[in-house]
Amino acid sequence: MEYNNFRNELLEALRNHFVSPYHVETTMVTKNNTQQREAFRIHLDGSSIAPTIYPRQIYENNGHKPFSVENIVKQLESSFLDESTPLSHFMEHIHSYEDVKDYIILKVIGQSTNRDLLETIPFYPLTDLAIAFSIFVPVKEKDYGTIQITNAMMQTWGVTKADLYRQAQVNSPRLLPKRIHSMHSFLARYEAAHPTPPHSMYILTNHSELCGASCLAYEHLLADISERFSSSFYILPSSIHECILIPASDPSRLDELTKTVQEVNETVLDPTDILSDHAYYYDRTTGNILSEIS
């Protein structure tokens, strides 16, 4: 089935399924890197909760497998019922900092590709990246949603950016603990044919493998990794979900690895999943992250 046909059938099926007091609307949502994506939102009359569905993502996730639009609607309804309960809780208590503070987490995004967003949210720079803040919304198993924290929310709570940072540094490793895998073991999990990677390459992510590159902002983590490696290391931002780490004694390959990052961005990643367009080097001696050879 072509995408446009799928999209139209899904929208019609959702509107037939979610009747009064629900209604389904189409909208454009700004995602990471200012990318626009069409979305369907399911509104319940009198509620501020509106689960968001991205038809293109659903279509691509199904790949070439046979699928039924009716079954997809049933699956979405199940997810909607599961997700709306915790989301509703957070929305009802979102004006109280005391009620949400234990769920504030770090989120690392690019600065240059999110300029408009960064004008409206609190953040700290991390080289040319930005450490922003979100509210963690548990869904089920390892899945979770987030609510972006804005300047307006921070002012309503009467807290500072430093308060958010301190709280997020406590919460993030607890809610989304880091995971470091060898590249070899990471690829082996997918039981697919891959060239054997060097054993000196590692994957840094979190336990959910969603927005796992945000582990770069965990306090002391990069220093701890350098102790584990007994060396400095390159950081390849392969996506917002994970980074590749390569132990190294100097940054001489930085330009070469930057070309690799750019090639992956251009040929493999969805634009919303891109974190940066170049590699980095963590210098164990200084504790600095370099993005170019000086």
Q: Would you mind describing this structure in some detail?
A:
By secondary structure, the chain is of the alpha+beta class. The chain folds into three domains: 3-92, no CATH class; 97-175, no CATH class; 178-290, no CATH class. Helix content is 36%, strand content 27%. It is built from ten helices and 13 strands. A six-stranded antiparallel beta sheet has the order 8-9-11-10-12-13, sandwiched between helices. Strands 4, 5, 6 and 7 form a four-stranded antiparallel beta sheet that branches. Strands 1-2-3 form a three-stranded antiparallel beta sheet. A hairpin with a 2-residue loop joins strand 10 and strand 11 (242-248). The longest helix is centred in the first third of the chain and has 24 residues, at 69-92. It is globular. 27% of the residues are buried.
What's the helix and strand layout?
Blueprint lengths: L2 H15 L4 E9 L5 E9 L7 E2 L1 H8 L6 H24 L4 H4 L3 E7 L4 H4 L5 E3 L2 E12 L2 E6 L2 H7 L3 H15 L2 E5 H6 L13 E5 L14 H9 L2 E8 L2 E7 L5 H14 L12 E4 L4 E3 L4
Antiparallel strand pairs: 1-2, 2-3, 4-6, 5-6, 6-7, 8-9, 9-11, 10-11, 10-12, 12-13
Helix pairs in contact: 1-3
Largest sheet, in brief, is: 6 strands, antiparallel
Low-confidence stretches: none
- What share of residues is helical? 25-40%
Strand content: 25-35%
Shape: globular
How far the N terminus sits from the C terminus, by CA atoms, comes to 52 Å
What value does the average pLDDT take?
A: 88
Number of helices: 10
Report the C-alpha radius of gyration, rounded: 21 Å
